Amino acid sequence: MQDIIQLKDVVFHWDAKKAPTIQIDELTIVQGQHTFIKGPSGCGKSTLLGLLTGINQAQSGKISILGQNLSHLKASKRDRFRADHIGYIFQQFNLLPYLSVIDNVLLPCQFSKYRESNTPAPMQDKARELLSSLKLPSELFEQPVIELSIGQQQRVAAARALIGMPELIIADEPTSALDHDNRKVFIELLMEEAQKAESTLVFVSHDPTLEPLFKRSINLMDINQAGRKS
Fold first, then answer.
1. What pLDDT sits at residue 228?
2. Contacts of 29 (CB under 8 A, 6+ apart)
3. What does the alpha-carbon distance between residue 188 and residue 213 come to, in Å, rounded to a whole number?
4. Which of 19, 84, 135, 176 could disulfide-link to 114, CB 3.0 to 4.6 Å?
């Protein structure tokens, strides 16, 4: 299987005068794998995701995503790579409140010709298909997303990440506002849709009760040398 994520001797710090936030000797995640990355708040989980998406740049080491060394790309190229190949589910969802549900889901296709080309026309039908698979009622599809509940907005955010079949889906604490039963249902639906798209899923959370839902689990505190030193 192809390595989707490969980190080697990666060091990142916000301030050169202070200790690193991330210091990882090696991390590999292969194609199609659903991986749970756990660790307490403040251990560097969001910083790691910033490195995987090219938002942050390591001071040393290699970060390869889909075979592309991100350190070899200029900022504009990293932005393009992220838009084309990575679907991101934010902790706060980052939906545009007064756009409709459908328009929110289709936003990545406006920013990425690559993901638009992976979405069969009419694109609205694919958005509806994803939302239906994620169990969002069809009568909400044309509603402003601000009118939806937190759990419903979460499903819209997942559909937005999945549209255009990006090779990598990253979820950053997306279930923190839900009760346990709804968390489990959401994760199972997300996994099912990621598998259909043949996407690799990286799910980050500080909630250890979610760990049994995943075939692979990584404790960031175990692989982050910086975390062990602090």
1. 61
2. 3, 4, 5, 35, 200, 202, 216
3. 8
4. 84
